[in-house]
Design goal:
Length: about 230
C-alpha cells in the first residue's frame, strides 16, 4: 500500500498570509519593505528541513549539518520592522553584527549601497555566504569574527544593526557610526528587552528611542552593564 504523498506547500500563499496576517498588523506599512518580502525569498535562507516553517511567527533555529548551533533567526515581523525603522538610503553603508543565515543582510542590501556583516561562528558565516551566493545577492561582505571587536577597524557606517540582543546599548560602536548615523539593537535583560533605535548626534552622542518590547537571544560577546556606565 502506497503512502499518500504530502501535498506541495504553496509558498506564495504562505508568504502572502505572513505579510497580511503577521507583518502588516505589526505596523509595518512601508510598501517598499512589504515588496521586498516578496522579492527576497525567506524560504531560501532558513536551514534545510525548515522551509515549511519559513513564514511562521517565531525565531527559527540555525542548524549546521542538522545540528542546532544555539543561534536563531529573527521572526519575519521583527526583520520587517527593523528594516522599516532603519529607513535606509541608496547610498548608505551598513554594518550588521550577527549574520545568521544571511537573510537580514539580503533584505537590507536591497535598500542601501553595501552591507558588511560579521558572524562569530565560522560555520554559520559559511552558510550565509552560500545562501547569499545561491540567491544572487551581491554587495554583501561576510566576515568571520567578533563584530564588537572588529567594528573599529572596518570604517564608518550610516547604520549598524545588531541581529541579536545586548544587555546595554553598545556605545562602543559609536566610533564606527557616521554623524547622524543609526544604531539598532535589542537592549535589556530577559524578560525586559526593547528594540531601541539610537541616532548619533552632531556632537557625537547617542540619542535613544525605545520602539517596542520584545525578546531575543543575547549576542555572544555583547557588552554587559557592569562593564560600561552609559
Amino acid at each position: 500500500m502506497t503512502t499518500p504523498r504530502e501535498p506541495a506547500m504553496d509558498f506564495e500563499k504562505a508568504r502572502f498570509n505572513m505579510i497580511e496576517q503577521q507583518i502588516r498588523p505589526w505596523n509595518v506599512l512601508n510598501q517598499d519593505v512589504l515588496d521586498l518580502l516578496e522579492v527576497v525569498k525567506r524560504e531560501n535562507f532558513v536551514c534545510s528541513g525548515l522551509e515549511k516553517l519559513a513564514f511562521t511567527d517565531c525565531d527559527l533555529p540555525i542548524r549546521i549539518n542538522g545540528r542546532d548551533t544555539g543561534e536563531t533567526m529573527f521572526s519575519p515581523k521583527m526583520e520587517a520592522r527593523i528594516l522599516q525603522e532603519l529607513e535606509l538610503g541608496s547610498q548608505d553603508k551598513v554594518l550588521e553584527i550577527g549574520t545568521g543565515t544571511g537573510y537580514m543582510a539580503a533584505l537590507m542590501v536591497q535598500q542601501c549601497a553595501h552591507v558588511t556583516t560579521v558572524e562569530l561562528n565560522g560555520s554559520i558565516a559559511e552558510l550565509a555566504r552560500a545562501n547569499l551566493k545561491k540567491n544572487g545577492i551581491t554587495r554583501v561582505k561576510v566576515l568571520e569574527g567578533c563584530g564588537f571587536e572588529l567594528a573599529a577597524g572596518l570604517g564608518q557606517f550610516d547604520a549598524i544593526v545588531l541581529s541579536g540582543a545586548s544587555s546595554i546599548m553598545p556605545a562602543s560602536l559609536l566610533g564606527a557610526l557616521n554623524p547622524l548615523g543609526r544604531l539598532m539593537a535589542v537592549v535589556g535583560k530577559a524578560p525586559a528587552m526593547q528594540l531601541v533605535l539610537a541616532r548619533k548626534s552632531k556632537e557625537g552622542q547617542l540619542i535613544t528611542t525605545p520602539l517596542f518590547e520584545t525578546m531575543t537571544k543575547v549576542l555572544t560577546n555583547a557588552p554587559k552593564a557592569s562593564e560600561f556606565v552609559f
